[in-house]
């Protein structure tokens, strides 16, 4: 009997956590994603930057099929998201998403917001969900606000509750769409710190952001999008230090 080798190089053979091939998305006649190819490895932190209207949000929303995919393939965690027949709710349980506007339930306390999805989807008993929520609120620095209603929280605190809520489903991947854009400047730092900690903890993250300092410091890779294309991608050093495309250079000249 021949033995199968057990020391295969995982890094070379492992499938990416997210594989996007030829992704196109149109709204009516308006093609806003024009064929994206992006692979994201497990544990990788990818920041997506680019001008307003370039398709960054649409790209993110295609990853968990909040938008129907017009053409191409999107595979997340081994699930073919672009396959209409797939149980998308099951896939979404692996993917946490945080938006610019936190969308917390106003009549529920912070901890109730964090507990809701695990209880509703029957992933956890109420007691388990509460224990997890306590831990997560602690993780985002809000243990003492567990019983506060959203109206009594600052923008930065609300966004941190929203992150805890997304983490409550124990996702493998976190998507952030301009999570700090609606915040007063003095609150941006506390939210970015939570993202930084998540990145350090090995979470796979796709982060659409205008915070160039954050992208430079935290990301493993930066993707610059314009007009529905990935114009350029590379390490933060490459993109911010030595951008090759004139569109990237123009954009960075405007925002830096
Ligand atoms: P970004 O996040 O980079 O600012 P978006 O992905 O939000 O860009 O938008 C890209 C383009 O798609 C824009 O022209 C926008 O008007 C259009 N778009 C986005 N969502 C919709 C929608 N639900 N219906 C129609 N057009 C949309
Ligand atoms: Mg957007």
TrEMBL record:
Matching SUPFAM superfamilies: P-loop containing nucleoside triphosphate hydrolases
Domain of life: Bacteria
Protein name: Amino acid ABC transporter ATP-binding protein
Cross-referenced InterPro entries: AAA+_ATPase, ABC_ATPase_HisP-typ, ABC_transporter-like_ATP-bd, ABC_transporter-like_CS, MetN_ABC_transporter-like, P-loop_NTPase
Pfam families: ABC_tran
Keyword Nucleotide-binding among record annotations: yes
Signal peptide boundaries: none
Domain ABC transporter: 18-252
